[in-house]
Amino acid sequence: MLRTMHHVAIIASDYEKTKHFYASILELPIIQEVYREEKESYKCDLKIGNSQIELFSFPNPPERVNNPEARGLRHVCFGVDNIDQAVQWLKNKEVVCEEIRTDPVTGQKFTFFKDPDALPIELYEL
User: Fold this and answer.
1) pTM for the whole thing?
2) Which band of pLDDT confidence, cut at 50, 70 and 90, is reported for residue 66?
3) What DSSP string runs through 36-92?
């Protein structure tokens, strides 16, 4: 029945700063951006592979629990061909990454960095 992940939705505390992070720093193409006046909210769709990130703004959104062991979505993960190159690319853009680790089960390399709202993002070498 389920075939693919269509999108992940993110609510930003600072919409312009977060849009800049995903569109300019991470270089995800903007598919479309709309302002929804009835909700006082922007929505920006960004392309990542065959999926999308839906980026939203809302007036006064509540704080996110920033504990990765809390219930709910734990993190977003992007697959990369070469993690060393991807980490260097992010560092060149002044994005701080954790040390690269190796998954003890799969043997694959991975690391984490955070978006402007401290949402954890994983890079996983495919």
Assistant:
1) 0.90
2) low
3) EGGGTEEEEEEEETTEEEEEEE-SSPPPPP--TTSSS---EEEEES-HHHHHHHHHH
